[in-house]
Amino acid sequence: MEVFKKGDVVEGFRILSELGRGAASIIYLAQDEKTKQVWALKDVQKKDAKSQRFLDQAEIEYKIAKKLDHPAIRKIDRMIKKKKGLRHVKRLYLIMELVDGKSMDIYMPKTFERACDVFCQAASAMAHMHSRGFVHADFKPNNVVIDSTNHVKIIDLGQSCPIGTVKKRIQGTPDYIAPEQVHRRAITPKTDVYNLGASMYWVLTRTKVPTALGKGDRLIGSIDDGLMERPKDAIEINSRIPPKLSELIMQCLEISTDDRPTMDEVVDRLELIHAMLKAGVKDRSGQMRAMTE
Fold it and tell me: What is the pTM of this model?
């Protein structure tokens, strides 16, 4: 993979530093030489036939992002394609909003109040996606960036798709993947609800949800819905979780999509729980605002 150095100019953008790497991409801090605005520049390269899917995902990410307008979803300003010959794209650049913060798998909320605020912002962003006809399809803690003021940005739309899509292969992240993703059924807004529930479960309990993939970290094989191991109630693992929050998480993790709440319902309930925590309202276990002792 070709790597740019500090000071290199790429399509009118001067490289300032490297921010991170993916399977077939590198993200740089880059400055527009004309406007002096600073961006995150994602460089996706085609190394072989198998890596074509990364170019395809980047193009999908751009096209979907341009149809969204929510403060908790990273904006993508433009896409630049570099072609080999007349038809074949060999490289693609995404000029993305620079997001300042740390991903939620690293920067954990310190209280249930802050956690509810973060989850509510993320749920609101995905509800916006659903209203525009799309599903995120890969929500997880490391796709959520939180800044110092607890503001959220969802940063990766690479697996997003129109509502009702049936994907050609299993896509998702093992610890958060919904049963319908494993069995390659239609991807719907309820898929995002499950992914969010699995993310909330992990953040608040530090325990992974059993998925239809069974044990292991590879997206192969599957377990029938009726044979899936059910997770313990979140409150059984962490007794400090407010009961109403634990109840919501477990409903998001229902195997049947029909039994899960809608994302709008998730937003409403998270807003209510957040308001109760902020006001110091006690439940049957007493006030539980700190996530740990």
Answer: 0.89
